## 1
Amino acid sequence: MSAGSDGMRRSTSVAGYPHRIPKTKFYGLIRPMAEVDHEEGYRGWIGADGGCGSGRSMEPVLRAGPTTSLRGASIRRWLLILAILASVVTAVGAATPTPEEVRETTGMAIDYHPGKGPTLVFIHGWTCNRTHWKKQMPRFKGGYEIVTLDMAGHGESAAKKSEWTVSGLAEGVVEVIEALDLDRVILIGHSMGGAVAVAAAPRAKGRVIGIIGVDTLQNAEFTISGEQVNEVVANFERDYPAAMAGFIDGFFASRPEATETKVFVQKTMGKVRPEIAISLLRSYLEMDAPRAFRGAGVPIHCINAAMPYGTEIEINRKYAEFDADLVKNVTHFLMLEKPEEFNPLLEKAIEKLAKENKEESSRMSHPSHIHHAIPEAWPPYAHEK
């Protein structure tokens, strides 16, 4: 699967006729081309006149079907017919699975919206779900290829894992990326979703071109002691509903006027089995941030609340290619609270990462730069235990 000059992912490009081929009803094309029924779903790829919709007729080729005698036919003409048929077979194999098929094979509930590249994969935060991106969809749907998902154990996704960790959630995200055969992916992760994105990027084997964190990844050198982790976890173990209610209240203590956002978060956060939530909380708090930053292998751009936590840009740049935008007077859920301010920053970050990726791809394709293909951060990371 390739991308055209306009960014649209295409199934094929044959003999100078780039067209997005329908993903169903290809079976008719193994018959003589002159027998194709245009009511079966091919209109727009093979025109009613036997051409390819570009104004340049292929009538002489398409009328020479497989039943036509080879006597007198040019070899070039038949090679072109074979190339067209081969491209169709390839296109059939590249059909995008439906959200239902992805859920059946991966256990992950998703929403998928086709569009131009790059592909945006939205990852929600701890004990939340994919509806937390509802105020981004009107702006970005149609302009980009989009996937929103419920991570394993959250929302409508299955909860079948034997061990609940950030790395385990990252593996589920990669399963979705591979099931949909996505490329030029930008992972957009809120809160713990940012840590999941950092863990998923290297596992996706070159499919991810960048990460956008949303109020997350503030300081790669921030540490929390084992005793403090145990104290936080014990609070949720004693009384999960009460601890969750207090946790949510804390996010809005400095912004009591954000009542609409708070009500929505209260309705949608924490609706996860307590044992799953608590295990993931421990995994998140115990994350080795420097190692995670170094291992990401792609640029990271964060859109964070300016307060109450500072974002240490220069510290983070010691471990990864990092940048950030800081938004004032917002809560942890800034994408829900102030979409009119957040969405333009998100689009700017997307365009920046996409442009840098294109420039890097062009540079890397030059023979003199091939030896730079492996990020410099990887050799020391590979030796860590």
## 2
Amino acid sequence: MRTAPAGRDRHLTPATAPQVVSSAGIRAASFDRPRVDQRSVFAAAMAVLAGVGVVASGYLSWVKVAGGTYVCFVVSGCDTVQQSSYSSVFGVPLAFIGLAMALVVLGFVVAWWRTGDRRLLYVPYGTGLLSLFVIAYLNYLELFVIRAICAWCETFAASVVLGWIVTVVALSRTPAPAR
């Protein structure tokens, strides 16, 4: 069985693909696996992570508006954290701010996915970078001041941190726009 020489273009057509001869003497073109579009992979990952952020912050926002009790999974500190004085900034619940941020990031990720304009990734990058510092501070407050953990808040935080990491990798692996 013959294969393509090393370094050869991976995008082969039937005319340029190396021939494989089976034991029965049948000739067939041999193709490498099709390349997966990196932008689609990164955009899908970022969209899923932003979607997780929308769900987590959306739930916290909904309960805040409805005035109900938070259903907390794994740990039981959601009510304690959400009732603390640290759960809002200038009277605006942090859940609303997180929901707005996640929706903006999701919008820019989808726009980048559709257009391929790399500059659209700078908004998720910038909001994620700023959020890293805010999340670090809020985690400090949860652990050492409030002494309670909100699983929804940590889910949102994890989606932001992972989304930012994927954004950094996407920026480093996608071509810059032509000037």
